[in-house]
Design a protein that fits this description.
three-stranded antiparallel beta sheet
């Protein structure tokens, strides 16, 4: 199968194994190339073009379709998670955000040690409202 068609490239081995599991669940034979090399030296991932996921040519279209499918809505429905809306503008376009990166970087650059702690939260992409966890 080493001569199969490359349907995806991944940076990290765990991404490749999630893709492999999805394809094998659909009955598609999969070969993951260069996973051990990148696992041992992950800085080589970009230089090597990432971990390649190969399938036989006759499964290429089906494999690409499976890997491009977004199951987040089904997962949210199964777990009962409602989509959050911004408290200020009502937009549902909310993304994860790390607070305190800039001050920590500046203090690290000037003093050699980061003085501020980073905190995870969310930010509305429409109005910029910051929501802390």
């Amino acid at each position: 199968m080493k001569d199969g068609v490359v349907v995806a490239r991944c940076t990290f081995p765990w991404e490749a194994h999630v893709a492999r599991a999805s394809l094998e669940h659909a009955g598609i034979p999969v070969f993951i190339a260069d996973q051990h090399t990148i696992h041992n030296d992950w800085l080589m991932s970009d230089a090597m073009g990432g971990i390649r996921i190969r399938v036989p040519a006759e499964f290429e279209t089906q494999a690409r379709q499976i890997l491009q499918t977004d199951y987040s809505d089904a997962l949210h429905a199964e777990l009962g998670i409602d989509e959050e809306a911004c408290q200020r503008c009502g937009s549902t376009s909310i993304e994860p955000h790390v607070f305190g990166k800039v001050p920590a970087f500046v203090s690290f650059f000037l003093l050699g040690i980061p003085l501020f702690f980073r905190r995870n939260g969310y930010r509305c992409t429409q109005c910029g409202l910051r929501i802390r966890d």
